[in-house]
Amino acid sequence: MPKGNSERQNGGAGRGGPERGGEDRGVRDRVQAVGQQIHEGAAQAGQRLSEGYGMAREETARRLRHAEGMVARNPAPSVLIGFGIGFGLGLVLTTLLARPEETWAERHIPDRLRRAPDSLTNLADTLRNLPEAIARHLPSQMRSS
């Protein structure tokens, strides 16, 4: 006998028989209730989010109007403050984002010439000690005491 005919013969209740029909409906009702609760919770969350957005938007607009009033009453200090903030941010960003770059002198001047100031300092020290260095190489009779 085909499978479909056996289901028709036991009252259309499917494989579990007539005793499972009530159990299936109970599960279905519970799933629908949970789905309804989730739907209501999502609707409430959406409503709260919408209200919060509206309040934040109103507060932002109020603060913007207040700032515009301050700028209108004090235009010169506002411009100077804006310039200072922009300059400071520019310095900070340049410092953070700039890669160390080789200078013109580092690219074109040989190392021995770039170290010349150090050499001149050493030369000055050597010239200061020159009379003593010469005296050490002279015979003791020629040294002035």
Describe the structure.
The protein has 7 helices and no strands. By secondary structure, it is mostly helical. The N and C termini lie far apart (138 Å).
What does this entry show, briefly?
The chain is mainly α. It is built from 7 helices and no strands.
* Helix-strand pattern: HHHHHHH
What's the average pLDDT?
A: 82
Query: Sheet bearing the most strands, described?
Result: none
Unreliable runs, pLDDT <50, ≥5 residues? Answer: 1-14
| Principal-axes shape call | elongated
User: What is Rg?
Assistant: 46 Å
SS class: mainly alpha
Helical run tally:
7
Ordered list of secondary-structure elements with their pairings:
Layout: H1 3-9, H2 21-73, H3 75-97, H4 104-108, H5 111-114, H6 116-128, H7 130-137
Helix pairs in contact: 2-3
Key terms:
145 residues, mainly alpha, 78% helix, 0% strand, elongated, disordered N terminus
